[in-house]
Amino acid sequence: QKEVEQDPGPLSVPEGAIVSLNCTYSNSAFQYFMWYRQYSRKGPELLMYTYSSGNKEDGRFTAQVDKSSKYISLFIRDSQPSDSATYLCAMQDPSYNTDKLIFGTGTRLQVFP
Amino acid sequence: DGGITQSPKYLFRKEGQNVTLSCEQNLNHDAMYWYRQDPGQGLRLIYYSQIVNDFQKGDIAEGYSVSREKKESFPLTVTSAQKNPTAFYLCASRVTLRYTEAFFGQGTRLTVV
Questions:
Q1: Are B19 and B77 in contact (CB under 8 A)?
Q2: Distance from C-alpha of A33 to C-alpha of A35, rounded to nearest angstrom
Q3: Which of A42, A74, A75, A98 sits most deeply, having the most CB atoms within 10 A of its CB?
Q4: Tens digit of each residue's pLDDT (9 = 90 or more) over A4-29
């Protein structure tokens, strides 16, 4: 079993829809969670980061962490064609003696006009 | 503007050759990383460095080498021992402290011809 699981998609939605992207993880020690957006042939761009459980909102984006279920989500409101990209989740285990981050495989999102 | 610069954007290598990918950052970050990205496999850690003159192997270090002589620079050499080097290579950096986000360069696409 992978430490972080993410549905690869593609997830196809119409413009204006609310999008929900999710990751599950197996290590209950994970505490620091990040979401990245990656356009084709580009480097990942940091969207959101959260520490421990709870919600964090930034414009059209909301990151949610449910540690009891080992489940994190990224919600995108009023989705736009420019949101079409691959979304990667990442997390860190504080018990590691390194700065190692664990990444999901990414979910490809397509927003059509 | 602060950021991470990877060069070249595209690189072609003949079989049996070594090639070096450049990564430079002006964010004053202590930690730097190299990841490899293949379709459907997400990001896999090759090497990382937490301070100058020190680096550690990641999950897939075989066939790769790195150096960290300056804080700003973390070049990656893909040697002829790497059997399947064609991939998208990403460099990242972050502040050494835990619970900080990682920032990525725009990547180098390496193709063996």
A1: yes
A2: 7
A3: A74
A4: 999 888 999 999 999 999 999 998 88
